[in-house]
Write a structure and sequence with these properties.
The complex is a heterodimer of chains A (255) and B (441). With 255 residues, chain A is α+β, with helices and mostly antiparallel strands. In chain A, strand 6 and strand 7 form a beta hairpin. By secondary structure, chain B is of the alpha/beta class. Chain B folds into 2 domains: 186 residues, 3-Layer(aba) Sandwich (Rossmann fold), CATH 3.40.50.720; 209 residues, Dihydrodipicolinate Reductase, domain 2 (2-Layer Sandwich), CATH 3.30.360.10. Chain B contains 14 helices and 15 strands. Chain B has a 9-stranded mixed sheet, with helices on one face. In chain B, strands 3-2-1-4-5-6 form a 6-stranded parallel sheet, with helices on both faces. Classes of the chains: A alpha+beta (255), B alpha/beta (441). Chains A and B meet through strand 1, strand 2, helix 1, strand 8 and strand 10 of A and helix 1, helix 2 and helix 12 of B.
């Protein structure tokens, strides 16, 4: 068993328990994972004035800025999810229509358009980690990014799958026990001390409800995106989104 | 210089940096601790089979501590020993019976088969010996603090600028993995904005060494007299003030403090109780305290941030709002105990911040070597062995270690500024003539 952890990345803690017969394979992979996370963290950190995202967000409207391959890839994913969620999941905080990007360049056309990858980065990392683990033949792992984005590959050495419990942030009672087997779980929600942080991009309303959403999916990125979108989606909007995400069924807990 | 036979244990420079690399990316390690670029695992591999021919000046307790470490460094060969105090020289010779012995270091510096010199002598000898050794074309490793006065520090700094030799001062925290890792975590924002630093070093001992005859008192107990020592500041605070500058990435502008001989009134001249406050230009302060008549508080370098606190000597940090999950720990315990159960991985990050106690988190995983500060010689695995190994590597490659001299210069000047503040009992500023381009204010 190899335990790797990064105490502070993308505002959270990252932990990975990896099981493989050859330690050097795991160590090499862990080096790759930390490099990936550090690279993304340094590019996407909105609070660092020198990050790529800060340069883009603070450039004059209409000014063309360079765009790295990694950030362009995330923007493409963000745009695809923007379409699939009918605009409910929006990493531009103002609409992709006011943004042009491609071939290593980006331009904002409205001041209020600001990039924020907070709702997608952890899911993206978990998706990448899952692919890299599988590429080197590691089929047994538990990866936890900040407690709210979790990946379970294969099974616990002494049980079936990986079991995680979701508890109410208001009174601590058990809401659900999930078993993850080659799946991930993403959770979003309000808490007594942290609420109103998810905003409906079209209506501008902040979700202040005592609500928690949990999404289990084979794709960590789908889970991440849907747990955010479901917090603010109306029933009609949920119906629309179901068309794009097949069997994935988010669970809402109104507390 | 080629040597095929290797004895002892590779004391882990390779493993040390490699493991740090796995923790959070090798490039990041070198960014926060650029001096490590001179001793990367790859470079160590390149010098495989070579040995640095080193000589030691000053064979007292700290010198012998270095000799014990040198025995474990495969790329080091101790060829000469020097001291004007025979009992110590004999003890050192017992450790390296094949080494030549000298009582005059200048004579020893004339020898052509010496690549590097390790200086472990009283503080007032650091400057003349370092300057002479550099002038003789030797690479130099000198104990901290850099020198006895600001003028001497500047003279060494200037000589180094014009020298192609490597120069190290034994600021071992710069090579201590828990400190290196902690710097990465601090830079990553783990403890938020650093708004204060508190360093202390407490012991309950008179700081005296047994003296066989009265005429040797100032020779043996040089730490207690102003002509040869800067007291608690140069002997202890120098390490801790370097850490503060490393964290702040700048240099304080001023200092104020009080020092007294409170308890050990035995004829000594240096304070046994010091309290100094250093102020950076942004208002952040270092609160420094050392007392050698009570050891309850031990030794610690504490970094205070808006989101957490680092206790670097213990290798721990504490968060103001602790979102870290205990789920992983439970899971690790389960696997070790061959048990299976659900873990609260998705829950605790949302718990309201009601915990009354701060939970300690380890800065590095695995065995942590904690220096409680009670040894007057040195402790195992505090970075002293690694920095010495790095020096021996530099003796072979000729590569200077980035920023080591500059960091030692800055921290020593702060020690001397603190002494000046305590003697004057007023706010003092760093004199302009001793400012160097490396200093950021």
């Amino acid at each position: 068993m190899f335990h790797g952890s990064i105490p502070h990345a993308m505002g959270s803690r990252f932990d990975a328990l990896l099981f493989a017969p050859r330690r050097e394979v795991v160590e090499g992979l862990w080096g790759e994972i930390t490099a990936l996370i550090e690279e993304l963290d340094s590019r996407l950190n909105r609070f660092s004035p020198t990050s790529e995202v800060s340069h883009i967000n603070h450039a004059e409207v209409g000014q063309i800025q360079p765009l790295s391959e990694e950030v362009e890839r995330l923007l493409q994913l963000g745009e695809a999810y923007y379409r699939q969620t009918e605009g409910l999941f929006d990493i531009t905080l103002g609409g992709f229509d006011a943004l042009t990007f491609g071939e290593g360049a980006i331009c904002r056309h409205r001041t209020e358009v600001m990039l924020d990858f907070g709702g997608i980065a952890k899911g993206y990392v978990l998706r990448e980690v899952k692919q890299r683990l599988q590429a080197v033949g590691i089929g047994q792992a538990f990866v936890d990014f900040g407690g709210s984005s979790i990946l379970g590959l294969g099974s616990h050495p002494y049980g079936e799958g990986w079991q995680v419990e979701l508890t109410s942030p208001y009174d601590g009672r058990l809401l659900e026990r999930f078993t993850l087997r080659d799946e991930s779980l993403s959770t979003s929600g309000n808490t007594p001390t942290y609420h109103g942080h998810i905003c409906h991009p079209k209506r501008g309303e902040r979700c202040e409800d005592r609500r928690v959403v949990a999404v289990k999916s084979p794709d960590p990125l789908d889970a991440e995106v849907l747990s955010t979108a479901w917090m603010i989606a109306s029933e009609q909007e949920q119906q629309q989104m179901r068309k794009h995400f097949g069997s994935v069924e988010p669970v809402i807990y109104n507390l | 210089m080629k040597e095929t036979k290797q004895e002892g244990v590779d004391i882990s420079l390779r493993k040390f940096i490699k493991e740090l690399g796995y923790l959070a990316g090798g490039a990041a390690v070198l960014a926060t601790s650029p001096w490590l670029t001179a001793c990367t695992p790859e470079k160590l591999k390149e010098i495989s089979g070579n040995r640095a021919r080193v000589a030691l000046i000053g064979t007292g307790s700290r010198g012998q501590y270095h000799l014990h470490n040198l025995k474990l460094i495969p790329h080091a060969e101790v060829v000469a020993l020097c001291d004007n105090y025979e009992p110590h020289l004999k003890e050192a010779l017992a450790l390296f019976p094949n080494a030549r012995t000298y009582t005059d270091y200048r004579k020893m510096l004339e020898e052509k088969d010496i690549d590097g010199v390790i200086i472990s002598t009283p503080l007032n000898w650091h400057a003349p010996m370092t300057l002479d050794a550099l002038a003789a074309g030797k690479h130099v490793f000198c104990e901290k603090a850099m020198a006895h006065s600001m003028e001497e520090c500047k003279a060494i700094y200037d000589a180094y600028q014009h020298s192609d030799r490597a120069l190290y001062f034994c600021m071992q925290r710069m090579y201590d993995e828990k400190y290196i890792r902690a710097m990465q975590l601090i830079r990553s924002g783990l403890i938020g904005e650093v708004t204060g630093m508190r360093c202390h070093w407490f012991r309950n001992a008179d700081w005296r060494r047994p003296c066989p005859s009265p005429e040797l008192e100032r020779h043996i107990n040089w730490r207690l007299y102003k002509e040869s020592s800067g007291g608690l500041m140069t002997e202890l605070a120098s390490h801790q003030l370097e850490v503060c500058n490393w964290v702040a990435d700048k240099m304080p502008e001023s200092a104020i403090g009080m020092g007294d001989i409170v308890y050990w009134k035995d004829g000594r001249e240096v304070y046994d109780s010091v309290n100094v406050i250093y102020r950076y230009s942004n208002g952040v302060k270092i609160n420094y305290e050392s007392l050698i008549s009570n050891k309850y508080n031990g030794m610690e370098d504490q970094i205070l941030g808006t989101k957490g606190t680092m206790e670097l000597a213990k290798g721990l940090y504490y968060l103001e709002e602790d979102h870290s999950t205990s789920g992983i720990k439970q899971l690790i315990n389960q696997v070790q105990e061959k048990a299976f159960a659900a873990i609260p991985a998705a829950g605790p990050s949302w718990r309201p911040e009601t915990q009354g106690k701060y939970r300690p988190h380890a800065i590095i995983s695995g065995e942590v070597h904690v220096n409680h500060g009670q040894s007057t010689v040195g402790v195992d695995k505090d970075g002293s062995d690694v920095i010495l190994s790095a020096f021996c590597q530099s003796c072979i490659t000729g590569e200077k270690a980035k920023n080591v001299v500059e960091e030692a210069y800055c921290s020593t000047l702060l020690c001397l500024l603190g002494n000046k503040a305590m003697e004057a009992r007023e706010l003092v500023y760093l004199p302009d003539e001793y400012k160097i381009p490396y200093m950021k204010f």
